[in-house]
Amino acid sequence: MSKQTILPRTGEFLAEADRYGAHNYKPLPVVVERAEGVWMWDVEGRKYLDMLAAYSALNQGHRHPAILQAAREQMEKVTVTSRAFHNDQMGSFLRELCEATGFDKALPMNTGAEAVETAIKMVRKWGYQKKGIPEGKAEIIVLENNFHGRTTTIVGFSSEEQYRAGFGPFTPGFKLVPYGDAKAFEDAVTENTVGFLMEPIQGEGGVIVPPEGYLACTARICRERGIAFMADEIQTGLGRTGRFFCCDWEDVKPDVLIVGKALGGGVYPVSAAIADDEFMDVFHPGDHGSTFGGNPLGAAVGRAALRVIVEEKLSERSAELGAWFMEELRSIDSPHVQEVRGKGLMIGVVIKKSSGPARPFCEALQDRGILAKETHEQVIRFAPPLIIPKGVLADALAPIREVLLG
Ligand SMILES: *Cc1c(COP(=O)(O)O)cnc(C)c1O
After folding, report:
1. Does 287 participate in catalysis according to the annotation?
2. pLDDT per residue over 186-208, tens digit each?
3. Closest Cα partner for 53 from 31, 38, 32?
4. Gap between the Cα atoms of 146 and 142, Å rounded
5. Which residue ranges of the chain lie beneath pLDDT 70?
6. Which phi and psi angles does 362 have, rounded to 5°?
7. What pLDDT was estimated at residue 111?
8. Taking a C-beta distance cutoff of 8 angstroms, is the pair 154, 230 a contact?
9. Pick from 372, 390, 348: which is nearest to 236 by CA?
10. Which of 260, 211, 210, 206 is nearest to 232 (CA)?
11. What's the gap in Å between 57 CA and the centre of ligand 1?
């Protein structure tokens, strides 16, 4: 596989980042200077197809004109107020978010991890107040191989050793069970269980799709046992898997819906925890908050981001293009590929252990003008912006074929 050569200009940027930035990432050695739609250009003037879409923060593509326009117009008026005052964007944003998702209320935050933390606080307090769980005993069941963000509470219930090592002590009250096994979940329920926190497809875990019926079955168990079903749709939501939300594939309406990433339309961090009044009512003034959450710039961007997903039928596009692209990928008779899996345009190509890790395959793709990133050693993730034209996706098949057959 390719030995990458680093051009001098690129090398300078890499050296600067290496010298002044914490070494908490290992990015591909490409320095992006500008982007539009599905395309990115690096500081050497080379053009790339973006097949990662910032982990689905760019479902609407880079610099979508309608979202940029909304941001520009809002920047001319007011950008941040804090929640000490009202602003004229937040209420409309939350109404549109609730109307689109079918819930009573939404609590706006910024990053995905904050929205997950919000959901955890909400469900715990709900458990104490409405279910009479003894103080300090609330338990949330989580899944092996999960990814919900990087705060100390969240990494504390990760099953990934590297996410935890050296960062303890951790927040108690979480119990891990295997993903995709509804029986294991049911067996882990106790009288103190208040919530079940899950990803309908595990993205960072390696694009792991649970067995059909898993969402509906675990949601039914939650309903029967009075447990809050908390769907982290930060990556799977907003069209990515070929439905508006991945839970829609099994007609499941979660009790708490967690969104982020594409809600910010690729320009600004916007996230939210969404639920009906029964859950949201636990919050009173002073209980929870965020300086930037619900700020007018973020709210205006969020409104435009949602509009684009609906008006441009991005869920439908993702379903159609994803099904077709996955078939094309499966038809590549590669000695290196163990499996192609996913839903919509959230696709993982699993490289056999005997062929080495996925990283060199991603580097070879980079050399051919396609930016994709490995996840979990063996998986190449293909998750382009959902606005991608079919022809562009079709053209990507030749270089992908070359790399997978090489
Ligand atoms: C990205 C992601 C998060 C964390 O979002 P941040 O904005 O990085 O904090 C949480 N859950 C899932 C499923 C994600 O993909």
Report:
1. no
2. 999 999 999 999 999 999 999 99
3. 38
4. 7
5. 1-2
6. -65, -35
7. 98
8. no
9. 348
10. 260
11. 10
Radius of gyration of the chain (CA): 21
The residue annotated as part of the active site, out of 105, 245, 255, 261, is 261
Which residue's CA is minimally distant from atom 11 of ligand 1? 148
Q: Report the pLDDT value the prediction gives residue 131, as an integer from 0 to 100.
A: 96
Q: Does the Cβ of 199 fall within 6 Å of ligand 1? A: yes
Question: Which ligand 1 atom minimizes the distance to the CA of 269?
Answer: 7
Residue 383 CA to ligand 1 center (angstroms) comes to 15
User: Is 255 in contact with 196 (CB distance < 8 Å)?
Assistant: no
* pLDDT on residue 89: 98
Residue range 215-254, pLDDT digits in tens: 999 999 999 999 999 999 999 999 999 999 999 999 999 9
Name the 3-class secondary structure at 272: strand
Distance 235 CA to ligand 1 centre (A): 7
Catalytic residue among 185, 196, 229, 232: 232
Cα–Cα distances in angstroms (integers) from residue 265 to residues 26, 71, 273, 291, in the given order: 25, 10, 17, 20
Looking at residue 401, its amino acid is: R
At 401 the pLDDT is: 98
The answer to whether 196 and 222 have CB atoms below 8 angstroms apart is yes
What is the best residue among 235, 245, 247, 257 to mutate for testing ligand 1's pocket, by most ligand atoms within 8 Å of CB? 235
Q: What are the structural domains of the chain? A: 8-60+314-405 (3.90.1150.10), 65-311 (3.40.640.10)
* Cα 379 versus chain centre, distance: 16
234 lines ligand 1 (CB under 6 A): yes
Closest Cα to atom 6 of ligand 1: 112
> Does any ligand 1 atom lie closer than 6 A to the CB of residue 296?
no
At 2 the pLDDT is 57
- Note the Cα 298 to chain centre separation in Å: 18
Q: How many helices (H) and strands (E) does the chain have?
A: 14, 15
| Nearest one of 229, 305, 215, 311 to 263, comparing CA atoms | 305
260 lines ligand 1 (CB under 6 A): yes
149 CB less than 6 Å from ligand 1? yes
203 lines ligand 1 (CB under 6 A): yes
pLDDT score for 71: 98
Rounded-to-10 torsion of CA 196, 182, 254, 153? 20
- Residue 177 φ then ψ, to 5°: -130, 160
User: Amino acid identity of 44?
Assistant: E
pLDDT at 334: 97
